[in-house]
């Protein structure tokens, strides 16, 4: 069987798991998850237990992208912390098995919210879900990175300086047309870079509600998913990532809260969410938040430019969606410039 971003050689996977995963018993079937644009993700089903396989996509990839080995490491390290993660079973670094590196993790049975308005929930439950999202974020940034063995998980120095340089390079490597707003945003972020304030925590890199699994009939988070962009960095990048997402159009496509009456739905304002986070971390507040918000718009623009490039190259996990989201690069760049003007 040929391996692509859409398929999996089940015979090869089954044989490998039979040899390396204690308790594994076939027969094995699979279903590809719609999400996981960057790293194709599959539900593996057996008569007794379900697992999740997450792999690097096949084909030529950007350097340092699709680091499933890092995803495996960080989630394994967080197993005994207050940050809920799926249990990690094994990492396969042998590309010859299915054509690229992959890992196997526990299948967390719960519910996922693609739309932050959560239309099927009550007002009180919406408020509780978002508050637990806030709790988990504060817990993530309170993890003792030395104690969990992650002190070397990211380089020292100014996180935002490093990230702007990295994603500017990634963006240029996947550029398909010139976007003036993106050029202006990259220049402006360098110009308005704040000095390093010394905060150094574990950061998720793509923290949003659709990367979380909640209780099937409750409001508590059971697992945070999609750790590909995680590193040691600045916590405000994760916090701003949440606020960035909420500024997008509402609905399953934009997955934001723009134009939504949050109070009526039981959802906090940006300011209330930030204040609750600061309270949990014992902080008085955050100055110059517009820079952090702008950075998140910039990084997301660079990410979806890479998604578009993979679609054009034939390596996208979900080609149709990749082409669609790729059209939003100029929109994110414009939002980034707007956020900087508020400084």
TrEMBL record:
Protein origin, superkingdom: Bacteria
Transmembrane spans: none
Database matches in CDD domains: ACAD10_11_N-like (cd05154)
Coiled coil: none
Pfam families reported in the protein's UniProt record: APH (PF01636)
Ranges for domain Aminoglycoside phosphotransferase: 30-253
PANTHER family according to UniProt: AMINOGLYCOSIDE PHOSPHOTRANSFERASE DOMAIN-CONTAINING PROTEIN, HYDROLASE, PUTATIVE (AFU_ORTHOLOGUE AFUA_1G12880)-RELATED
Protein name: Phosphotransferase family protein
Species for this entry: Sedimentitalea arenosa
């Amino acid at each position: 069987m040929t391996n692509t971003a859409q398929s999996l050689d089940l015979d090869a996977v089954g044989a490998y798991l039979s040899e390396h995963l204690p308790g594994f018993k076939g027969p094995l079937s699979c279903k590809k998850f719609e999400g996981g644009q960057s790293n194709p993700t599959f539900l593996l089903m057996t008569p007794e237990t379900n697992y999740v396989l997450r792999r690097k996509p096949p084909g030529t990839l950007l350097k340092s992208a699709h680091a499933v080995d890092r995803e495996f490491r960080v989630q394994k390290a967080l197993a005994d912390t207050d940050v809920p993660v799926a249990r990690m079973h094994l990492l396969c670094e042998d590309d010859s098995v299915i054509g690229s590196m992959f890992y196997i993790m526990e299948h967390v049975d719960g519910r996922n919210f693609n739309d932050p308005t959560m239309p099927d929930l009550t007002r009180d439950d919406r408020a509780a879900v978002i508050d637990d999202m806030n709790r988990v974020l504060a817990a993530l940034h309170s993890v003792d990175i030395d104690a969990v063995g992650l002190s070397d998980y990211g380089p020292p120095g100014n996180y935002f300086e490093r990230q702007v340089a990295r994603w500017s390079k990634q963006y240029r490597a996947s550029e398909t047309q010139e976007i003036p707003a993106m050029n202006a945003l990259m220049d402006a972020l360098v110009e308005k870079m704040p000095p390093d304030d010394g905060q150094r925590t574990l950061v998720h890199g793509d923290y949003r509600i659709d990367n979380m699994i909640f209780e099937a009939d409750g409001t508590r988070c059971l697992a945070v998913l999609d750790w590909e962009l995680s590193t040691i960095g600045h916590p405000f990048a994760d916090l701003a990532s949440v606020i960035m997402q909420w500024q997008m159009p509402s609905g399953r496509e934009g997955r934001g809260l723009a134009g939504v009456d949050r109070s009526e739905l039981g959802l906090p304002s940006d300011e209330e969410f930030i204040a609750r986070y600061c309270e949990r971390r014992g902080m008085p507040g955050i100055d110059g938040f517009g820079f952090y918000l702008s950075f998140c718009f910039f990084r997301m623009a660079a990410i979806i430019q890479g998604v578009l490039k993979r679609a054009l190259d034939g390596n996208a996990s979900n080609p149709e969606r990749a082409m669609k989201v790729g059209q939003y690069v100029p929109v994110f760049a414009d939002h980034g410039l707007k956020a900087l003007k508020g400084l």
